[in-house]
Write a structure and sequence with these properties.
mainly beta, single chain, 9 strands, 1 helix, 4-stranded antiparallel beta sheet, 139 residues, 3-stranded antiparallel beta sheet, 2 domains
Length: 139
């Protein structure tokens, strides 16, 4: 018996001569969250852990698409940093001392850290127009 529920999106993916058909169904049709989907690959329901109804968030769908394209597991997001707004930190100035070491200036975080699209955590600091990568600061 064919599926009676309506799919929201169909994606045809062709990679190195192999074509895969991805169909996305709103999870709400199965009592799932409103911002999630069920995934059907080439006519078969896809559930990585063998679950009966696997629901995918946008990040989960991105991970599955990455696996299909590359054949590898996606990188995991960086863990949330220990820094918070108003923390005192030392940020690099872009200059170097006589010994060749980078120079730092003391300032404060002006806002909460944000995970960038590059997978690095960034935060606004007092005295700078652009956010600073947290992996470059001393705290």
């Amino acid at each position: 018996m064919s599926e009676k529920r309506r799919k929201s999106t169909t994606i045809l993916l062709r990679n190195q001569g192999k074509t895969v058909k991805l169909e996305l169904f709103p999870a709400a049709q199965w009592g799932g969250p409103a911002d999630a989907w069920r995934l059907r690959l080439d006519g078969c329901w896809h559930g990585p852990g063998g679950e009966r109804h696997a629901f995918y968030t946008p990040a989960g769908l991105t991970g599955e698409l990455f696996r299909l394209v590359t054949g590898r597991e996606p990188l995991q997001d960086a863990p949330h940093p220990r820094f918070r707004r108003r923390d005192r930190v030392a940020v690099p100035t872009g200059r170097f001392g006589l010994d060749g070491e980078p120079l730092y200036e003391l300032t404060f975080l002006a806002g909460a850290p944000i995970l960038g699209i590059d997978g690095r955590w960034w935060a606004p600091v007092v005295g700078r127009d652009e956010p600073v990568a947290l992996d470059t600061i001393r705290g």
